[in-house]
Amino acid sequence: MSNRRSFLANGAATLIGVGLVSRAGAAGLPEAPVQSNASTAPPLMPPDGRPYNPVVTLNGWSLPWRMKDGVKEFHLVAEPVLREFAPGMVAKMWGYNGQSPGPTIEVVEGDRVRIFVTNKLPEHTSVHWHGQILPSGMDGVSGVSQPAIQPGKTFVYEFVAKHAGTFMYHPHADEMTQMAMGMMGFWVTHPKDPRQHAVDRDFVFLLSAYDIEPGSMVPKVNTMTDFNIWTFNSRAFPGIDPLVVRQGDRVRIRAGNLTMTNHPMHIHGHRFEVTGTDGGWIPPAARWPEVTTDVAVGQMRAIEFIADNPGDWAFHCHKSHHTMNAMGHSVPTLIGVDHSGVAEKISKLVPGYMAMGEKGGSMGGMEMEIPENTLPMMTGTGPHGEIEMGGMFTLMKVRPDQKRGDYTDPGWYRAPKGSTAYEWTGELPPAVSAPAASVPAGVKPLEVTRDKKGHDHH
Ligand SMILES: [Cu+2]
Q1: pTM
Q2: 209 CA distance to ligand 1 centroid (A)?
Q3: Which residues form the Plastocyanin-like domain (predicted)?
């Protein structure tokens, strides 16, 4: 598993046979379409079967199917893939049909579904259909409900998608390794009546996290909590596409959490309601307004709101360490410490050493060399400067003139004159200090000095 060559060496003989069968669609197997890049595919309009309103998978795609005697047949191929997390960083992962996460599967409530799963990994796997109410033997827990799918083998799962809702799929075989390597995908079962739960834009993605040492390409699979790449669908900001909506649209965002910690998802400029979980839709009377909702490990949440406020609005995990990219958490806090010259001295002893700023973080502006194949901790440039974000962060772009069904990035919001925060240049009132009653003698607040350019220093 340490490099791509060993993947190929291990499974070369069996892979050739399977590749010919699945790609050519011979021997009765449905075609296994492959996606080679991390762009957001347009919604997959159902060509046959019952109609539904398709979802948009953020930096992902939906898997085409074929109808055979009234059954919707899909073909998933578990295989090593390359995934670009953001421009500048590519990881060697495991996924499905060319990407991690795998493609979104969209079906309609009541559909009979047959899923062929071909294993092109160097080890056994299985697929568990998280949230589906199905026969025990189709549940995909290797050793319990079925034997594991050995390398080179294809298994068939078949069940009726009984309930409309928000689900996911992932292995239930060597799970820790396989999920740490990126094996997961989204599943949406649409309601029978497309007018039910209808929205104008329906975005879906999985929250996932990886530990990839700067300069390397393979996730460390033994990491339990100290991950360094926090993603929406295996993309880190600024690699995550914006959620583009038309002003007045009813918007749904569905997120599922397959990381090892919870993620309080927060939106700016709007209030939402949690309308669904992986257990189903929440009755309207049981919903309440929120601007942040926690998505715990193994949970899925669907949130809904009317995007009535034009602008560029942050949508992100509220854990501040999850809106950063690769960083060491053992970096000392140096706010208030004059360490000018110290970093240079240390970096001679410890190559790659970088100290946090004495003025605070402001790492976005630090000019430092980063190793090959990793991401700066905080990146992205907006119309007013550095955004200083990474990881689980993107923008919802609400525009009055966005066309229905158009997901193209409209660029930066142009705020109406007089509606943007501005610098005060008039007189300041005299400072008033409260008496420092219980502070020991001699203890003072951090001093602020100014350098020649007028920048504050603490
Ligand atoms: Cu988080």
Answers
A1: 0.84
A2: 9
A3: 88-192, 218-332
